[in-house]
User: What shape does this take?
Amino acid sequence: MSTPGESAREPVDVAALLSRLPLFQELTAAQNALVAAGARVRRVGKGELLFRKGDEAHGFFVVIQGQIKLSLSTPQGQEKVLEVVGPRQSFGEAVMFMNRPYPVFAEALIDTVLLHVAKAAVFDLLEKDTGFARAMLAGLSRRLHSLIDDVEAYSVRSGTQRVIGYLLQQCPDGAADAGDVTLTLPISKQVLASRLNLTPETLSRVLHELIEGGLIAVQGKQITIHRLRQLREFDW
Assistant: This one.
């Protein structure tokens, strides 16, 4: 397993970083300092593993910069991408609370900087600060709802609906129905296909059908949506 330690590059002000993360914004300076004392910065290069399935969890992670792919291998030896975690998002909390090994492996999609928050610091805060406990529960609840949405999508939604739903999620808030909307896929099409529980061939077919229908244009990872209203109607 690749277990890169802290980098010898420029130092990171962990306490200042924590204060900017939603999970820790309501902590007092003293509480923030306690968490910072039990946290450390980790850097992983593109393609490196942060942990493997079966490794013991000693805390949870927050992405500062970059992207982490959480995946598992199917019995057929294929990779199934469960989630792609980006900046200001956390992962590993549930496994930490359950005191069980990681059920997935975590790989950096690009060069990534993370903050690892130690279990002891988290448990100490949970006992002393109800606001932090509520924030932690809210984060776990969001993760649960996301998993439920995934199960629903895989069970009742077509491949085309899954792709359209993902594209709509990437659109900026308040995007107008009229006019083009251009977005850049944050992950490769291969990873996207796995995340949507599609084969790469099916994803390519769906994108081609949307292009042929005049709904979108695709150039590499850049996608321009021409008919946002139609996509929204199709999504339902």
